């Protein structure tokens, strides 16, 4: 028993050996450039509400659906959302997420994001090999 305990003490997992804490360097490939703006609090009280608008709307819709049709309806819809989120294009290709828009009922409406798209979904394509390696956890 004491020999087994000493073997466990002597073995150190890779995660404990990796750099962490105060002396950890910033990994540009995985985390990108540092920005002070990302670390600041929202500049306006409505900014946080606007960022979470879709999540709040989904919660309200699920609660209403549960009250009207019972627990099975929101569970089925959440299962369909999860299935649609798993089907994606390669990480370096833009995806319109049309199936998600159909499930949410946004397929027949034209909004701001349809004309002036979200800047995070720009048409600039990254290096395909590096993006796939990062998605697969090889990097």
TrEMBL record:
It comes from the Eukaryota. Keywords: Chaperone. The keyword Translocase does not apply. The keyword Oxidoreductase does not apply. One of its GO terms (biological process) is proteasome assembly. One of its GO terms (cellular component) is nucleus. Belongs to the POMP/UMP1 family. This is POMP protein. The lineage of its organism: Eukaryota, Metazoa, Chordata, Craniata, Vertebrata. The gene is Pomp.
């Amino acid at each position: 028993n004491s020999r087994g305990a000493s073997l466990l003490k002597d073995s150190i997992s890779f995660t404990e050996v990796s750099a962490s804490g105060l002396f950890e360097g910033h990994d540009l490939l995985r985390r990108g450039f540092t920005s002070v703006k990302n670390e600041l609090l929202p500049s306006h009280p409505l900014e946080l509400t606007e960022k979470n608008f879709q999540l709040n709307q989904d919660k309200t819709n699920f609660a209403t659906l549960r009250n009207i049709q019972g627990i099975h309806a929101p569970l089925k819809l959440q299962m369909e959302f999860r299935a649609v989120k798993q089907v994606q294009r390669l990480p370096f290709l833009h995806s319109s997420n049309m199936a998600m828009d159909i499930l949410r009922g946004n397929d027949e409406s034209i909004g701001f994001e349809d004309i002036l798209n979200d800047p995070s979904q720009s048409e600039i394509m990254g290096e395909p090999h590096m993006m796939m390696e990062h998605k697969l956890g090889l990097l």
